[in-house]
Amino acid sequence: MSEVSILIVGAGQIGSRHLQGLAKLDMDAKIFVVDPDTNALAIAKSRYDEALVGSKNHSVSFCESLSLVEGNVDVGIIATNARIRKKIVHSIVANITIKYLILEKIAFQSKSDFIEILQLLNRLGIQAWVNCPRRLYSVYRQIKSCLDITSPLHMSITGGNWSLGSNSIHWLDLFHFLLEDAHLSHHCSNLEEKVYKSKREGYIELFGELTFASRVNKLYLYSASQVTCPPFIHIENGHQRFLIDERNGQYTRYTADDQWKPNRQSFAVPLQSDLTHQVIADIMHHGKCHLALLEMALLSHQPLFDALADYHVKNIMLSVT
């Protein structure tokens, strides 16, 4: 395969981790990293250099503007905040010939922005995915293979101070991965009246409960504001139950056939830097990857848009990035 051209827009925390992942890419690559913040570019470069093992035929250019990106691009990774992502996508497709896009989550601030970009990319023939990576984790792929799709699926994620606004999309996407025809809708909310400032300037965060449903299937999310406890995942399906503790890498399955005895396994939660090169390789070799296509990701974003709109959060996606 000839040299692959990759663009990363946004060299912050997540963008720099994508770049670290590309250091593991076993393909000839021309990589452009774009961010107006020179300090962010410097940190991204150092992280790439740290991750680079052995000899790779990569050229990496660090740019403060999209105008400095040369030639056509195979894959673009848009790792900016959600507030400017629509503008960035418009700028990219207006000035660069590009085949594929990977968008960070939350993809856009509203359903209208989402549909606008979806229609734009469809018109241009650009394939796009949203990076909710839990569907790549081996533990959840294993659980999916065990599910009885003829029985209801109930999933709950509970904990404290795990940022309900910014992280709910991960669990909505995972639910749609496990049960592909789920089509969840917002069922009810019990959110705290107080709105908290996010760690990211200009954003807010929410705490409390959100419930989503699809016929007999249900997703329940709870994040308490006054305690700090990593989210714990509980899945019930037919005559089996799964408990997942991501923090400690422990997964337990209980089944009626085995008298509800715990079957425990250990697993490792991959970092973003462990995943990006695999996703890029899949796209370049097969024209597809295991992330959710943009049109499918709308099914996960829509219930969250509805939940926050019902709660009368003005400019709802200020709560998430």
Fold and architecture overview:
The chain is 32% helix and 30% strand. By secondary structure, the protein is of the alpha/beta class. It has two domains: 4-133 and 273-290, Rossmann fold, CATH 3.40.50.720; 138-269 and 303-319, Dihydrodipicolinate Reductase, domain 2 (2-Layer Sandwich), CATH 3.30.360. Strands 8-11-12-7-13-14-15-16 form an eight-stranded mixed β-sheet, with helices on one face. A seven-stranded mixed β-sheet has the order 3-2-1-4-5-6-17, with helices on both faces. Helix 4 runs antiparallel to helix 8. The two termini are 35 Å apart. Mean pLDDT is 93; it is low at 314-321.
Task: Summarize the structure in short.
With 321 residues, this protein is of the alpha/beta class. Helices cover 32% and strands 30% of the residues.
Q: Which features does this protein show?
A:
alpha/beta, 17 strands, Rossmann fold, 7-stranded mixed sheet, single chain, 2 domains, Dihydrodipicolinate Reductase, domain 2, disordered C terminus
Spatial strand order of the main sheet? 8-11-12-7-13-14-15-16
Along the chain, the helix and strand elements come as EHEHEEHEHEHEHEEEEEEEEEHEH
Distance between the termini: 35 Å
Based on Cα principal axes, name the global outline: globular
| Number of spatially distinct domains | 2
Largest sheet features: 8 strands, mixed
SS strand fraction: 25-35%
Provide the helix percentage.
25-40%
Mean pLDDT: 93
Unreliable residue runs: 314-321
Number of H- or I-type helical stretches: 8
Q: Kindly report the CATH topology of the largest domain.
A: Dihydrodipicolinate Reductase, domain 2
The CATH homologous superfamily of the largest domain is termed Dihydrodipicolinate Reductase, domain 2
Structural class by SSE content: alpha/beta
Q: What is the name of the CATH class of the largest domain?
A: Alpha Beta
Please state the CA-atom Rg, rounded to the nearest Å. Answer: 20 Å
CATH architecture of the largest domain: 2-Layer Sandwich
